Write a sequence for this structure.
């Protein structure tokens, strides 16, 4: 189903930072400064804000540069990482960048606070968030959280936990929320009953750690794993966000958005079909992870994207509404709500990604990945 805020294409950064907590996004949404070098080369300069440091979570964007896909579309793209010092949707709303990568629930909070942003491509089709406990913990579902210490990174990453708890009739007073670092150390030390983890990162950290009782690496059977994707608390994660006002008023920006999405789609197709090469590209672009961890991450990221039955990047209306419903239901340990009303219709649109896919389809490429199969990855100690 098309959902758009523009009549036609012819008219006309809560990420991983302490600043994420429902703070309003200020600023005017002006265009970023252009690169003289890019202009001289006949390319349109574009700034893309990531929500974290370089890693395979963003492999498709790095691959699009490495393989020349952006250049083929007439773009000179600068990728800007964030180590927690930049909130992607704030950078976008303030006009510092042209596009940003951020989780949907985090941006919903920013939109309610005043940011004017549109999800123009839902790259991750599934949630990658887990809650991990020891196999003998008795924690096998969200309903078992009652009376337990539950780890959460905060900074907007906690809303799936509270949405899933709300669906089970649990509120934040029934658990003890423990602020967790972006690693599994507190869990391994016994300070947390169930730790937050991403399929592509922290869970791998467990499986590349030596079990002191056996002298071998921990195995999946050592843990109970709750996937939020299997709960009604599941929320949409990595999406590409654009400035709504610029989409509506600036035809050049709208055309750039379509060209940008075409290159991004080709980048993620490359990562799907060449996971080893894509992992190497992210390592070459500054990822600090070891090679086996990076390849694991690439493989798990592909699972979150592929298959995409309606085409990569298409926003599924039911998944969007589930995210909104979860955001409305979620109440954190301080009693704060993520959002208190439905977001505006302008919060998402399939118009731009659909045009990108339509143009790519003419080339006969695989935009759905129906035959996608993950590879086997053997983690090494420490991810090396």
């Amino acid at each position: 189903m098309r959902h758009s805020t523009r009549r036609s294409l012819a008219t006309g950064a809560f990420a991983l930072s302490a600043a994420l907590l429902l703070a309003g996004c200020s600023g005017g949404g002006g265009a970023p400064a252009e690169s003289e070098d890019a202009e001289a080369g006949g390319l349109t300069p574009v700034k893309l804000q990531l929500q974290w440091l370089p890693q395979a979570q963003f492999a498709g964007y790095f691959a699009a540069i490495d393989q020349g896909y952006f250049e083929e579309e007439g773009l000179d793209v600068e990728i800007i990482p964030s180590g927690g010092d930049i909130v992607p949707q704030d950078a976008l709303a303030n006009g510092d960048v042209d596009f940003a990568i951020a989780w949907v629930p985090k941006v919903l909070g920013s939109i309610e606070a005043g940011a004017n942003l549109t999800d123009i491509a839902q790259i991750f089709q599934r949630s990658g968030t887990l809650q991990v406990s020891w196999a003998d913990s008795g924690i096998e579902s969200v309903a078992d959280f009652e009376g337990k210490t539950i780890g959460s990174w905060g900074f907007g990453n906690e809303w799936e936990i509270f949405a899933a708890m709300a669906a089970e009739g649990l509120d934040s007073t029934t658990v003890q929320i423990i602020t967790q670092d972006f690693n599994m150390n507190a869990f391994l030390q016994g300070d947390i009953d169930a730790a937050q983890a991403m399929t592509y990162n922290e869970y791998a950290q467990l499986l590349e750690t030596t079990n002191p009782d056996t002298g071998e690496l921990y195995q999946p059977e050592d843990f109970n794993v709750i996937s939020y994707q299997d709960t009604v608390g599941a929320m949409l994660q990595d999406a590409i966000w654009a400035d709504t006002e610029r989409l509506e008023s600036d035809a050049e920006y709208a055309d750039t958005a379509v060209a940008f999405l075409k290159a991004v789609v080709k980048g993620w197709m490359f990562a799907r079909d060449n996971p080893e090469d894509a992992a190497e590209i992210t390592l070459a672009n500054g990822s600090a992870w070891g090679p086996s961890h990076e390849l694991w991450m690439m493989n798990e990221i592909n699972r979150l994207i592929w298959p995409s039955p309606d085409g990569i990047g298409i926003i599924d209306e039911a998944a969007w509404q589930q995210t909104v419903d979860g955001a409305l239901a979620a109440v954190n340990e301080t009693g704060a709500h993520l959002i208190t009303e439905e977001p505006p219709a302008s919060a998402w649109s399939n118009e731009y990604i659909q045009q990108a896919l339509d143009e790519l389809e003419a080339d006969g490429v695989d935009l759905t990945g129906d035959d996608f199969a993950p590879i086997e990855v053997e983690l090494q100690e420490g991810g090396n």
